[in-house]
Design brief:
Bound molecules: pyridoxal-5'-phosphate
Structural class: alpha/beta
CATH superfamily: Alanine racemase
Oligomer: single chain
Strand order of the largest sheet: 7-6-5-4-3-2-1-8
Number of strands: 8
CATH class: Alpha Beta
Radius of gyration: 17 Å
Order of helices and strands: HEHEHEHEHEHEHEHEH
CATH topology: TIM Barrel
Strand content: 15-25%
Distance between the termini: 17 Å
CATH architecture: Alpha-Beta Barrel
Length: 226
C-alpha cells in the first residue's frame, strides 16, 4: 500500500466515523503525523492532497518543513521546552501541546516580540497518567482565566494523549472527559474553545464519536515506525 492509498483509506474511515456519529465529516481535520518519516514521504502525502502535518519534536519539524513542499501547515504536537519557543514559532501554525503556565507565558512573550498572535491548544492529562505531559485537570481549571488573559496567545481548545489501550472503549471515557472539560470552561469563561485534538491511528473512531475536531494520525498513513 502506498501513502496515497493509506491516506484514502484513513479519509474514508474518518468520514464513516463522522457520519456514524451524526457529524459532518468536514468538521474533523486530519493531521498527518510524519514524525520519523522523511520529507519525501511528506511530499508523497501532499501530492495526495494532505495539507496539515504534525511533528512531535521541534528539531525534526525545523529540519523537515523546509525540505517538504511549500504551502503546507505544520503543527507541533509534542512537548515544547521554553528555550525552543523562539525557534519554532515562525515554523508552525498551531501548537497542540501547551502543557504549563510558564510555557504559555513564554509563548505569549515571544509572540509579542514577533508581532504575532499564536494559536494554541492546551494539552490536558485527563487520565492522570504519570508518563504523559499535560496540565492536570485541576490545574487547567484553576489557571484557565490567567491563560486566557495572555495577550498574544489564542487558546483554541484542548488536546489529550490518553494511555494506550488496545480496547478503545477503555479510552473513550478520557475523550469524553476532555469534551466535558471543554464544555465547562467554555460556559464558565464565555471563551470559544472549538477545537478538540484527540484520537490517533488506533482510536480515532471513538475520538470522533466523542467530539474530536482534529485527529492526529501517523502509522496508518506512513507505516509502522521502526
Ligand atoms: C505519534 C503521535 C501520534 C500519531 O500516532 P499513530 O499511532 O502513529 O497514529 C499522535 N499524537 C501524538 C502526540 C504523537 O506523538
Amino acid at each position: 500500500m502506498s501513502i496515497a492509498d493509506n491516506l484514502a483509506q484513513v479519509r474514508a474511515n474518518l468520514a464513516a466515523a463522522g457520519r456514524a456519529a451524526g457529524r459532518d465529516p468536514a468538521s474533523v481535520a486530519l493531521v498527518a503525523v510524519s514524525k520519523t518519516w522523511p520529507a519525501s514521504d511528506v511530499a508523497e502525502a501532499a501530492e495526495a492532497g494532505q495539507r496539515v502535518f504534525g511533528e512531535n519534536k521541534v528539531q525534526e519539524l525545523l529540519a523537515k518543513a523546509p525540505e517538504a513542499p511549500a504551502g503546507l501547515e505544520w503543527h507541533l504536537i509534542g512537548h515544547l521546552q521554553s528555550n525552543k519557543v523562539r525557534k519554532v514559532l515562525p515554523a508552525c501554525a498551531l501548537i497542540h501541546s501547551v502543557d504549563s503556565v510558564d510555557l504559555a507565558r513564554q509563548i505569549s512573550r515571544v509572540a509579542g516580540e514577533l508581532g504575532r498572535l499564536v494559536r494554541v491548544l492546551l494539552q490536558v492529562n485527563v487520565a492522570s497518567d504519570e508518563a504523559k505531559f499535560g496540565f492536570p485537570v485541576a490545574v487547567v481549571r484553576r489557571e484557565f482565566a490567567a491563560l486566557a488573559a495572555l495577550p498574544n496567545l489564542e487558546i483554541r481548545g484542548f488536546m489529550t494523549v490518553p494511555p494506550y489501550d488496545e480496547d478503545v472503549e477503555r479510552t473513550r471515557p478520557h475523550f469524553a472527559a476532555l469534551r466535558h472539560l471543554r464544555d465547562e470552561l467554555e460556559r464558565e469563561h464565555g471563551h470559544a474553545l472549538p477545537e478538540l485534538s484527540m484520537g490517533m491511528s488506533h482510536d480515532f473512531r471513538v475520538a470522533i464519536e466523542e467530539g474530536a475536531t482534529m485527529v492526529r494520525v501517523g502509522s496508518s498513513i506512513f507505516g509502522r515506525r521502526g
